Amino acid sequence: MTSVATNAFAWALEYLAEWDTDDLERRVAFDLWAGERGVGAASGTPTTVGVDSGRIAEAAAKLASGETTSVALVEEALAVAADHNERLVGFVELTAESALADAAALDAERAAGEVRGPMHGIPISVKDVIHVAGVPTRCGSDAFEALPEHDAWAVARMREAGAVILGKVATHEFALGVTSPQSRNPHDPTRIPGGSSGGSAVAVSTGMGLGSICTDTRASSRVPAALSGVVGMKPTYGTVPTKGVVPLAWTMDHVGVIADTVADTATMFDILRDLPPMAPGVNDGVEGLKLGLPRAAFEDVDPDVEAVVRAGVERLVGAGATTIDLDTPGEPDFTGANAGGMITSRCEAATFHKFIDTDRSLYWGEVRDQLNAADEVLATEYLQAQRYRAWLRERMLKVFEGVDALVMPTVPVLAPPVEDADDYLTILSRNAILWSFVGFPAISVPAGKSPSGLPIGLQVVGAPFAERTLIAVAAAAETD
Amino acid sequence: MSNLATDAFQNALALLRKWRAERADAAPAYALELPVDRPSERPVQPPSPRRGAIASTERLLDSHDVTSEELVSRSLRAIADQNDELYAFVEILEVEALARAKKMDVERGAGRVRSPLHGIPVSVKDLYAVKGGTTRAGSLGYERRDDHDAVAVKRLREAGAVVIGKTSTHEFAMGVIAPQSRNPHDTTRISGGSSSGAAIAVATGMGMAALGTDTRGSIRIPAALCGVVGLKPTFGTIPLDGVVPLAWSMDHVAVMAPSADDAATVLDALTPEKKTVDTPVAAVSDIRVGLPRTAWRDAEPAVEHSLESVMDTLVATGVEMVDVQRPSAIDFDNANLTSMVVSRCEAAAFHRDLGLDPILYTSDVRTQLEVASEATAQDYIDGQRLRAELQRDMLRVFEDVDVLLMPTVPIVAPTVETADQTPLVLTRNVALWSFVGFPAITVPCEPSPAGLPIGLQIVAAPHREAAILAVARAVERGVNAR
Fold first, then answer.
1. A235-250 burial, b for 16+ CB within 10 Å, e for fewer?
2. Which of B250, B381, B385, B389 to mutate to test the interface with A (most CBs of A within 10 A)?
C-alpha cells in the first residue's frame, strides 16, 4: 500500500541517486561535526544575562516588584489550560501539583533574597519527547511509555535556573512529522498548529506558560511557531546536549525553544548553552547588516504569506539593513535537503525504533509507513545522503561569506485544515529542513497575519555559532 | 573465486543483526566524539635525544659525509635490485627525486635545514596524490591525475623529505594480503598489506620511511610481517585530503619507518602544530602495562616465545604488567567483523559513485563491494553504534593502564598459497584499534628461528602517542641488547 510517506521516500531515494558528486572523493558529513560539536555545551555554568523586553522579562519584573508571584503565574497558566486545553490539546500531562509546589518554593527563595536569574519562577512546558523526572514520557504514541528517573539535560538546566515545569505538551508521534494533527491551531481550531512541537506552540500561544522546551529535527520548532503565531528557534547543531531526549535522528536532532518573543527565546537559550550569550543581540539593531533573500524560498508561496514576509523585509531595510536576492540556496538545494534529510532522519529513527519493544501496529499510519520504508534503505543510499550533506554544508557556508543572515518565509502556506494534514508532509518543511540538515541556527518570528487572521512566520537563518546576529535580525523583524 | 569475502561479510552482518545496544538510544560513533587531549597528571621526564636511522643520517648530512643525492641514488639502486621480485614500487620518480635531492643539498649548503627530515628519501603509498603524477590505487581501472599533493605529502615535502616513488597497495586498500608483493625475508611468503610496498621499501632500504594508510591494520600488519615499525596515530590526527578513500570514518594516515624514533620524526613532520615526540612522558618504569591475554589466542609458538623475551626484558627494567579482561575475545571479534561491515559499506558508496566497470576489479574486491551494496542503512548505523560502545569501553580500559601490549599478528608471514585463508587472522588483533581510533604501533621483536619477523603491538588512549613511542623505544633497546 502506497501512501504519501512511502511515495516521498521513493522520490527522495531517486533524487539523491541522481545527484552527482563534484568531487569523487567527497567525504561524508561525519567529520564536519567533529571538533565543532559540543563546543561550549555542558562545560560549566551558563552565561545568562537576560534582556529588558519580552514577556519573560515583563513577568520577571513583576515578580521582582512583588506585583505577582510564581504561584500566581502558574495559576494563570492552569486557568488557561482549564479553558482551552481539551479543545486545542496543548498539554498531554499537566503536573499541576508539583508545579504549584515548585512555584511556592521559588517564591520563598525570592522572598529570602535569592534570585537565580531571569527565569526564576517562570512557568514553562516541555515537549513530550523530552524526559522530565517522575513524569511519563509518551512521545504522542499509544505504543510507548517510559517513566524517566532523571530530567533531560535541558530540563535540568531550566530547573537549576528556577523555571517551573508545568507539564508535558503534545507532539506529533515520536516527532516524526510536521503537522501535529491531534492538536488545533489556537487562531483557527479547524486547522493544525503545525508540528512536531504542536503542543509547545499551542501552549505558548494561548498563555499556558511563558515558554516551551521542544525539539527541531527537520522543522519542528519553526513550523508550529510560524503557523501558530509565536517564535520558534533551533540553535547551531550540537550546542545544546540532547541527553534525555528520545531520539528521532542522532545527527539532526536539536533541542529547540518556543516562546512569545525573540527576547524570551534568546533568554531561554542562554540558559541552555555555555557559549557567549545571544540575548543581548535583541538590542543590537541591524544597521549595516547584509541580508540574503533566496529567490527559491519565495517561489510557490501563498500570496498572503509573501506579502507579509516582504513587509517584514521592508521593516528590516527601514532599520538599516540591506538586502540581496540570491540564487543559492536554490530549488535543488531545498529539494535535495528535503530528500537527504528525510532519508537520514528516518533511517536513524528506524534503527532506534527497532529496539524499543514497541508494537508498530499501534503507530499512526503515516509514521509507520515512514519507518517501514526506512527499513529498506541501503547503507550506500544513506551514505550518499551524508556525502550530499557535506557538499551542501560547504555550499551554504560559502553563501554566508557574502551575507550576515538569510530571510525568507518559514512556511510557504497558511495553516492547512486538519483533514488535509497528511497531504502537507513535505510542503510545510520545505524552507526549513535545509537548515536542520546542515546544522545552521534558524528562527521563525511572527511577521503578521493573513486577512483571515492566520499567523505568518518569517524565518531568519544564521551561520553556525552566529546566534547573536540571528537574534538581532529576528528581533528587528518580529511584529507583536 | 574466493567465497571467503562473501562468507566473512555475511557472518559479520549476522553478528551485527543479533547485536543489541546496551541502551536503545545509543548514538552512532559519528554523533559523538573522541575525548580531546588532556594533560598528563603523572610525573614526567624530558624526552631523550633522538636516535634512529634518520637521526644518524641527518648527522652525516650535516657533516657532509653524505649528500641527499647520494641517499636517493642508493634507494634507487635498492629498487633496481629487488623491486621486480618483491613488487614494492609501482612508480619510481627517479628524475624528480634526484632533482629535489640536489635542491635539498643546496639549501643545506646555504644554511637552510627545514627539519630532521631534510633531504631524506621517502616513499608514498599509491593512494596518495603526488603533484604532477597519477594515482592508481592498485587497480586496473582507476586512474587519477593529481595536480596537487595530498596534504600529508605536502607536509613531508615542506619538511624537506624527497619523495622517490609510489608504493604498491592491495587493490583500493581493500585487503591485507597484497597478493602481488613478496616478503623480503622469504619470497615464498606475503609481505602483508594493504601498505605492502611501504613495508618492503623500508625493510630493504628503498627510502628511509614511508607513508601508508591503516583502516583495519594496513600499516601494522605488513610492518609486523616485514620486520619494521608501523605507526597508526589517533584517528583524525592527519588530514586525509588527497588520499583515495577506503572508509571515510576509519582511514588513518600512517607511517612505516625503521625504528620508533624514525616514526616519531616523520609523525612530527606530519603534525606541524604538535610535536609528539617532544611531549614529555612518564619514565618507562612508571608506565602501567596491560596484557589482554585473549590476544595470544592461537598464537604460533615462535610468536609467543619472541614476545615473552621482550616482556621479560621490560619487566626487568621495572615495568609493571597486569592481565586485563578487556578487550575480551568478543571485543576483538566484534571489532574485526563489524569494522568490515562499516568500512565496506563506505567503500561501496564511494565505488558506486566512481562507476568503474566491475570487470576491472579483482573478484575478491568486487565481491566485497557487491555484498556491502546489499547491507541496509540500519546495518551500517548499528555498526557505528557498536563502535561507539566499544570506544567507550576501551576508554575505560585505559583508565587503569597506560598502554596495552599484544602480538601485532598471531602468526608469522603466511605462504603465498595459504594467504587467502588468513585475512581475518591477520586483522584480529589490529582492527579493534583502528575501529575505535586509538593510536597503535608495531615494533619488531626477535624473529622466528626461520628468520621471519614478529611484531609487538603497543596501544594507548587517544592522543597518547608519546606513551606508545616511549615503550616502543624500550622494546627496541631490549631487543637490540640481545
1. bbbbbbbbebbbbbbb
2. B381
